[in-house]
Amino acid sequence: MKQVLLGCIADDFTGATDLANNLVRAGMRVLQTIGVPEKPLDAEVDAVVVSLKSRTIPPAEAVAQSLNACAWLRAQGAGQIYFKYCSTFDSTEQGNIGPVIDALMEALKTDFTIATPAFPDVGRTVFKGHLFVGDVLLDESGMQNHPLTPMRDPNLLRVLTPQTQQRVGLIDYAVVSRGADAIRARIAELRQQGIGIAIVDAISNEDLFRLAPALADMPLVTAGSGLALGLPSNFSIQPNPRAAALVPASGKRAILSGSCSRATNAQVADFVSKGGAHFVIDPLSLVKGVDAVELLAQQALAWAGSRLGEQPLLIYSTVAPEALQAAQSRLGVEQAGALIEATLAKIALGLVQEGVGQLIVAGGETSGAVVQALGMTQLHIGAQIDPGVPWCAGYVRSSGRQIHVALKSGNFGRTEFFTTAFEQGRST
Ligand code: ADP
Description:
By secondary structure, the protein is an alpha/beta fold. 33% of the residues lie in helices and 21% in strands. It has 2 domains: 6-240, Rossmann fold (3-Layer(aba) Sandwich), CATH 3.40.50.10840; 245-425, Molybdenum Cofactor Biosythetic Enzyme, Chain A (3-Layer(aba) Sandwich), CATH 3.40.980.20. Helix 10 (321-331) crosses helix 11 and helix 11 (333-353) crosses helix 12 (364-373). It binds adenosine-5'-diphosphate. The site of adenosine-5'-diphosphate (ADP) has 21 residues, from helix 10, helix 11 and helix 12.
């Protein structure tokens, strides 16, 4: 059996990719699984990131799924478990961060762990237990208006306390800045006081590098994806390009975009203005239901047919906010979203059957729908294209073939992403 060093549990799909990407940058060979695998691991990797969709489901279900993931990872040899949540600490008074930490601590028979969502590379910093997003506190960042997990208090001790049975303490910046020995001493002190979870301050990557050695013996760490930059050195692993090696890329190239985020709109406009071949999916022609999905997918695939090759082509439903609102008010937000996702997923399957072997998908939900339609359950993580977006390789169940995919969540990527990504971050 192959043994993993670090076992990770991520509470959503794109967050899992983000974590995997940071571990690869720090030198680990990483496999991301979609859900908990049914079989033992058969890949030679240093870390496995199990992606769940547990951020906003009922706490009892999130606990059950996380414990299942933990048991599988431990059975593959993982000596340390990393519970990964969002760098904006997305949770409600009920959870799910607190209940999952409590359950994992019990399963791993440990009385102490740390919690830090800090990810300085993307502006998430923690100071005196308060979470900043860029230059403002969490509750002024827009997250106070989030539809599912509104964050109205930037003090992480106050946020976590009602969610957990553990007492919550702080390892503040004055300690972190003095390095690993000072952090170890503070951990011993907190433990003596009966504290079970310590929020840790970090305002730079150097802080995370100072923290990591003090965590080497902990059965459980909990964090955003920033901590991943420092942990691999505890396993004597240093950054190296071999970590990102994938099977060589081959096959035709295509881009599917169902994201309507600002960054994606700019990327689509850039691709089109540079003369890239493109086909628009208009949701208003989908009103007749499932058959319309089939019809539109066929039209898109017929258009793609002879155009497919080394020059990437773009099939997209991306629209600016006004047009999005117009479609949503005609069709309903959920119905419009579900129909577009079903159409793009069907097109993805058709494109792979037509020989596409390098596929970019824009949009978090869109990526989830495409990966599911392709029957991909495991992704090997390759080199980073842009922050948070690596190339990945995985088997497509229906074709038994491995393809390369890049799954870009809405606001990620530079404006030239679609025209440059196929040549970037390729280690092969
Ligand atoms: P992002 O990562 O940018 O949030 P997602 O794929 O997660 O992108 O979400 C975008 C949602 O918008 C999806 O459910 C998608 O199906 C839907 N959508 C895309 N294009 C349109 C459109 N033209 N009209 C209505 N809904 C759309």
